[in-house]
Amino acid sequence: MRDKRILYVSSEVVPYLPENEVSQTSFDTPKMINDLGGQIRIFMPRYGCINERRHQLHEVIRLSGMNLVINDMDMPLIIKVASIPKERIQVYFIDNDDYFKRKGTFGDEDTAMFDDNDERAIFFVKGVVETVKKLNWVPDVIHVHGWMASLLPLYMKKYYNDETIFADTKIVTSVYSEGFKGKLSENMYDKVVFDAFDSKDIADLKDATYENIMKNAIDHSDGIIISSDEISEDLTNYIQSSNKPFLPFAAKDKMTELYPEFYLNKV
Predict the structure, then answer these.
(1) With contact defined as beta carbons under 8 Å apart, do 128 and 43 qualify?
(2) Do the beta carbons of residue 259 and residue 33 sit within 8 Å?
(3) How many CA atoms lie within 13 A of 137 on its CB side?
């Protein structure tokens, strides 16, 4: 893996958010590749519950300042960065006061989902790609973790498909059992179609359940990793019938053996 560039885009990452399957794997996987000599970057949202002083986040002025258009609205993009202690790993945070200043990650104290989670997801993935372009750091592989990041394969393959710097970049999506109940928004399809996608590429988003959003990510990825011991039968069947290279669930102690091979030779 020496000098291979792997970009990790995740909804949640330890130590910035509490430990769960997504946040822990989103730390363990880049650490493993970093230890093997790969070049890695991590991107996640800068939720309001993240203590900036404790984790020493600071704004990167040269990367901030652009506006992203979300559902016909100009939304300012702020980029912050921090380093994971003892690991020499940089984490970039996508920030915007309207979308991410609130203290909850995906919902309020009553666990209700935020009504604009669909817009937050669109902003996040656009912010990641625009920032990577500014960094002029072209990844060999982008590895997506968590549903907040799951629109990235669609945007990379369709919205940014004319960006020649990404012509050889492969996209891998991890599929987890942990998702959300219900739908992100009744209007998610209309907000995404604003970015001039062909309707057939986003038909799943008319019914924006967790399963349908992940199916859209699978459709636009080059490879799939099953990152939970058990995922729904619906998603399992969809992955197996997708004709995409996929890696079955592997315990943490097997990642070092399986993940580099998958990145380099399967996708």
Answers:
(1) yes
(2) yes
(3) 18
d(CA 191, CA 197): 11
The secondary structure of 185-231 as a DSSP string is: -TTHHHHHHTT---GGGSGGGGS-BHHHHHHHHHHT-SEEEE-SS--
Counting every residue written for the chain, the total comes to 267
Spatial distance between the Cα atoms of 175 and 221, rounded to a whole number of angstroms: 11
DSSP 254: G
pLDDT per residue over 53-105, tens digit each?
999 999 999 999 899 999 889 999 999 999 998 888 999 999 999 999 998 99
Tokens read off for 88: 């020499």
Backbone angles phi, psi at 202, to 5 degrees: -130, 20
Say how many CA atoms lie within 13 Å of 246 toward its Cβ: 22
Distance CA 106, CA 47 (A): 9
Question: Is 227 in contact with 25 (CB distance < 8 Å)?
Answer: yes
Reported as a single tens digit per residue, the pLDDT across 98-132 is: 999 998 999 987 668 999 999 999 999 999 999 99
**Full-model pTM:** 0.96
